[in-house]
């Protein structure tokens, strides 16, 4: 099928940088339709102008370009970029982002002998325009046709390693609809980082990676010199899709043989227990020299509880998806521009409630108001039979609890208030809940979305407007001089060059 290439490559070229680097990324749109690039997990501190989603940015018109100017401020770890409009993500257009620690800040493991980025995701044989038409028509997507590892099918990629040495694998789930399990035949994996946070270094034989999530593992090549399977397979699907690559020892005496090792398929308790075992390494330095455990999130009083329930209502005879009964519809003008230029009628604050309404679904451009420097409790509630995956732009959050059944205030008695992992994308199991503590320390208009791309496209998202009345550059950068204007903001001037 037709794919979206970046500089002629699929996946696109990796972006490699160091904490606090300034990145200048010029995106030339050679497609025949508008395009936007977003940055999964890059916080865009004080700078939602560069977030690259339709709520904050005008699309880049065909034949034109836009230059993103962003800083990877106080971040380390493994992330990825992807196209955020329509169903472009189904055609590729994604690539890895690696942020290394500054040289003087210690990392809690020896330097690996090498690193590999692995972008794994489900793949559909239909063109992205056909998939979009299916969704626009009110139907659900078909089951994926397969899995890809770095844009390739099974056994078409070989990763060469030296016996006795240790390598780092950065694995991201860049798919549209399906969680995956990742494993390497005959080898153990030591988890060291999740979306910018050093973890307790637990050892796993296989790891579940949900939609939009990124994990880093260390693998020591301690097996006899031959070739081994690297395996990704789908989770929680009735039919299991599998993709393999080859781990090739440089002194290999033989190729892979036999079937690839199997992994978990539909076991939810197994996955839930593994998720709870992913904890923060409290003694490791993060992107700054102070230890990650110096932020005692469990001692901060939350000022607000936001409960968010996903649902799958039929609206006007078509399948839609909703949060707290609201199915998001894009406005004719990016919300950030409407906010900045004070254009009335584009959105209303409070157009989505803090709690599930229990009512039927309805269409709305949903924006939730929030105060800068508030500290909030967010509870994702999933009453459906599917595994959900949620992403919050512009912030990290601490995962304090997840369990089956209905969340209640009594659930707080079992929260992890000490070493819960901090990250930006989290799963919610079927008929379960996941609770987060989140400092709202980043002014801007921020997308909160399902990472299931069909659900996101059909309304399972909204925007969080984190507001500071100070109107100060200390809190938020001014509008970029090169910002594109469109919709009702057309003709407005940004600021003098």
Automatic annotation (TrEMBL):
Pfam families: Cu-oxidase, Cu-oxidase_2, Cu-oxidase_3. The gene is LOC107814491. GO terms for molecular function: copper ion binding; oxidoreductase activity. Residues 2-102, 115-252, 332-469 form the Plastocyanin-like domain. Keywords: Glycoprotein. Belongs to the multicopper oxidase family. This is L-ascorbate oxidase homolog isoform X2. InterPro entries: Cu-oxidase-like_N, Cu-oxidase_2nd, Cu-oxidase_C, Cu-oxidase_fam, Cupredoxin, CuRO_3_AO-like.
């Amino acid at each position: 099928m037709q794919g979206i290439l970046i500089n002629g490559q699929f996946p696109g070229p990796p972006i490699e940088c160091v904490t606090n680097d300034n990145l200048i990324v010029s995106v030339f749109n050679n497609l025949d339709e508008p395009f936007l690039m977003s940055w999964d997990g890059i916080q865009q501190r004080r700078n939602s102008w560069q977030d690259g989603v339709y709520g904050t940015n005008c699309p880049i018109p065909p034949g034109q370009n836009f230059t993103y100017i962003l800083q990877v401020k106080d971040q380390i770890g493994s992330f990825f970029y992807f196209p955020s409009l329509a169903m472009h993500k189904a055609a590729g257009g994604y690539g890895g982002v690696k942020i290394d620690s500054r040289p003087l800040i210690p990392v809690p493991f020896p330097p690996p002998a090498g690193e590999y980025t692995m972008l794994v995701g489900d793949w559909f044989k239909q063109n992205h325009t056909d998939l979009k038409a299916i969704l626009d028509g009110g139907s659900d997507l078909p089951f994926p046709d397969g899995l890809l590892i770095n844009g390739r099918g099974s056994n078409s990629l070989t990763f060469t390693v030296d016996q006795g040495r240790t390598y780092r694998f950065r694995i991201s789930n860049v798919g549209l609809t399906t969680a995956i399990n990742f494993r390497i035949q005959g080898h153990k994996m030591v988890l060291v980082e999740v979306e910018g946070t050093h973890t307790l270094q637990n050892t796993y034989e296989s790891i579940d990676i949900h939609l939009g999530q990124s994990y880093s593992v260390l693998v020591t090549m301690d097996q006899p010199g031959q070739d081994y399977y690297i395996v990704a397979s789908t989770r929680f699907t009735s039919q299991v899709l599998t993709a393999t690559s080859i781990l090739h020892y440089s002194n290999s005496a033989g190729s892979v043989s036999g079937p690839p090792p199997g992994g978990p398929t539909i076991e939810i308790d197994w996955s839930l227990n593994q998720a709870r075992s992913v904890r923060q390494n409290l003694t490791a330095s993060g992107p700054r020299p102070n230890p990650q455990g110096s932020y005692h999130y469990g001692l901060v009083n939350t000022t607000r509880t936001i409960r968010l329930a996903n649902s799958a209502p039929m609206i006007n005879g078509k399948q839609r998806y909703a949060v707290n009964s609201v199915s998001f519809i894009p406005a004719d003008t990016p919300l950030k521009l409407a906010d900045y230029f004070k254009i009335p009628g584009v959105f209303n604050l409070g157009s989505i409630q803090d709690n599930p309404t229990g009512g039927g679904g309805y269409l709305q451009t949903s924006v939730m108001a929030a105060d800068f420097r508030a500290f909030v409790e967010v509870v994702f509630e999933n009453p459906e039979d599917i595994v959900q995956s949620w992403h919050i732009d512009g912030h990290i959050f601490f995962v304090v609890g997840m369990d089956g059944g209905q969340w209640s205030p009594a659930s707080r008695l079992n929260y992890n208030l000490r070493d819960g992992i901090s990250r930006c994308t989290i799963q919610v199991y079927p008929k379960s809940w996941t609770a987060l503590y989140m400092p709202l320390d980043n002014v801007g208009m921020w997308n909160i979305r399902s990472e299931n791309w069909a659900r996101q496209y059909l309304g399972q998202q909204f925007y969080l407007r984190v507001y500071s009345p100070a109107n100060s550059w200390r809190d938020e950068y001014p509008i970029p001089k090169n910002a594109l204007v469109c919709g009702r903001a057309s003709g407005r001037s940004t600021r003098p060059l």
